[in-house]
Specification:
About 50% of the residues lie in helices and about 5% in strands. The chain has about 100 residues and is mainly alpha-helical. The chain has a two-stranded antiparallel ribbon with strand order 1-2. The chain is rod-shaped, with a radius of gyration of 22 Å. It starts with a helix and ends with a helix. The mean pLDDT is about 80.
């Protein structure tokens, strides 16, 4: 009985250490991805590329009209609330024109 308890304690300790290491590694990678946030105004020349960065004062409705993509929420599962869109949010855009070309 004591041996199985010792083995269980050791296994749980090592699992906890591995989990802690994964959490620390994940948080380190997340913080080192970008030092400076990307602004929507940097993409004014090509406003409706496949990857779109939301600018100041934009909503999903204005972006949908501008880029001719009525299915923004469906293509971006990371948007849980369509009203919670903020500058710097990265979304995927597939315009109706691009969608028609893919269907051919």
């Amino acid at each position: 009985m004591r041996i199985s308890l010792a083995v269980a304690d050791a296994a749980s300790f090592y699992c906890a250490m591995i989990l802690l290491g994964m959490i620390l590694l994940g948080s380190t990678r997340e913080n080192s991805i970008a030092e400076e946030p990307v602004k929507g105004s940097q993409f004014c020349d090509r406003p409706c590329d496949e990857i779109y960065v939301v600018g100041e004062g934009e909503t999903l409705n204005t972006i949908s009209d501008k880029c001719d993509d009525p299915f923004i929420v469906e293509q971006n599962p990371h948007i849980h609330d369509p009203d919670d869109v903020y500058p710097g949010l990265v979304i995927k855009i597939t315009s109706s024109r691009s969608r028609k070309m893919m269907m051919r």
